[in-house]
Amino acid sequence: MTHVGVAVVGGGAAGVAALRTLVDAGQDALLLEAKDRLGGRAHTVWTHGGPLDLGAGWLHSAEHNPWVAIAEAEGFTVDRTLPRWYEQWRDLGFSPDDKAAAIAAYAAFDRRMREVSPASDRAGDALEPGCAWNGYLDAISGYINGAGSSQVSIADYLAYDDAATATDWRVAEGYGALVARHAVGGRVALGTPVTRIGASAKVLRIDTPRGALTADAAIVTTSTNVLAAGAIGFDPRFDDVLHAAACLPLGLADKLFLAVDGAAELEADAHLLGNPRSPVTATYTLCPFGRPVIEAMFGGEGARAMEAEGLGGAAAFAIDELCALLGTGWRRRLRLVAGSAWGKDPHILGGYSHALPGRATMRQVLATPVDARIRFAGEACSPTEFSTAHGAYKTGVDAAHALIG
Ligand SMILES: Cc1cc2nc3c(=O)[nH]c(=O)nc-3n(C[C@H](O)[C@H](O)[C@H](O)COP(=O)(O)OP(=O)(O)OC[C@H]3O[C@@H](n4cnc5c(N)ncnc54)[C@H](O)[C@@H]3O)c2cc1C
């Protein structure tokens, strides 16, 4: 049976970071990835003449995001154009007065989470009952947490908010392409889902449909929903880990890209919010990087509705929202080119993790080893930078360092 020093399970940002750290330290490591590609939720597809990110796209908190330096070292182009999420292009469908009121409602919600801090730790309990902007606030919660405020822990919400900066950059060649590139030089087995990790003998036994191997140690980076679904059997069972994973479920976040005829009439990188009064809406970036596409992002309830509709239905919804803002003449100028349904991806099962009310400390539980030879890593293990590719990266590096000392 093949033996490796460290088996890294999962080739997203955390797994790739762990692999790279181990290889650079001269360790014998093998990454086992279920899919036929690397990157996980960082996934760049090359279509309509350019790279489009169906998952992670923004180098959030760019000042302390390690992917920025990696991108530069790998020869990728870091685009420092800041997002315009709080602007509404030409004030279409969202007047400056309404926008100011919505932003003030968000500030009041944030203040109540910090100062009143409901005992339930449920962010939804910090909403002002009957406030006209609660749909807007839930849409924002959907983009940030992948879930509406009623499902989210206040402590978790604020931990992220306090650690994040307002500097968000992009990689012109694609964030997913960058994550995959970072694995070059490491040993990778694609199309190799791990089904069981046996820890009752001196060496670990790792089972896959392509055969078994043994390992001195393992770093497991699959998403919390994959862990909680029992896709990998652990022997002995790690009940604390599985419970922690269930308390940190993935919400939903999805993207779709529409090709635009006559894109010169739109302003590159300008922003539109589809419906500022509903959580079932999308946020649109017009012609990102000047390319002839519109990028739509759905979160929380909006993403749930779109996954139920299927890609065609989601595209029809986005086109309806855009035509309501830009004019009906745009209907024949917009066409679906690509989109995601991360909740339906059997190796991911959602967008990104949030803590259920009262469960923010579960991130620490997930990151605490239950066996000296096995570490869990991945975005959900980060106490403050969860739900991001750089948070995932840091947990992968930390897990590798912890194993090799
Ligand atoms: C629509 C969307 C937009 C986003 N936007 C941003 C953004 O702008 N900026 C940002 O920083 N983050 C963003 N994120 C979040 C970011 O993509 C994730 O937090 C991060 O990529 C997660 O990395 P990970 O390594 O923890 O997990 P994953 O990427 O999920 O990697 C886990 C890997 O494990 C593999 N796997 C699963 N089961 C098995 C098994 N049994 N055996 C072997 N392999 C297995 C999976 O296929 C996957 O490749 C976004 C996510 C989504 C969905």
Would you give an account of this structure?
It contains eleven helices and 18 strands. By secondary structure, the protein is of the alpha/beta class. The strands form four sheets. Strands 1, 2, 8, 9, 10, 11, 12 and 18 form an eight-stranded mixed beta sheet that branches. The protein has a five-stranded antiparallel beta sheet with strand order 14-15-16-13-17. Strands 5-7-6 form a three-stranded antiparallel beta sheet. Helix 1 runs parallel beside helix 11. It is globular. The chain starts with a strand and ends with a helix. The site of flavin-adenine dinucleotide (FAD) has 43 residues, from helix 1, strand 13 and helix 11.
Major beta sheet, specifics? 8 strands, mixed
Strand tally? 18
CATH hierarchy class name of the domain at 2-79 and 171-249 and 348-404? Alpha Beta
Classified in CATH, the superfamily of the domain at 2-79 and 171-249 and 348-404 is FAD/NAD(P)-binding domain
Mean pLDDT rating: 97
Give me the Rg, rounded.
21 Å
Sheet-strand content, in percent, reads 15-25%
- Small-molecule binders: flavin-adenine dinucleotide
Q: List low-pLDDT spans.
A: none
CATH architecture of the domain at 2-79 and 171-249 and 348-404: 3-Layer(bba) Sandwich
CATH topology of the domain at 2-79 and 171-249 and 348-404: FAD/NAD(P)-binding domain
Gap from first CA to last CA: 27 Å
Number of helices: 11
Shape: globular
Q: What is the ordering of alpha helices and beta strands?
A: EHEEEEHEHHHEHEEEEHEHEEEEHEHEH
Structural class: alpha/beta
Fraction of residues in helix:
25-40%
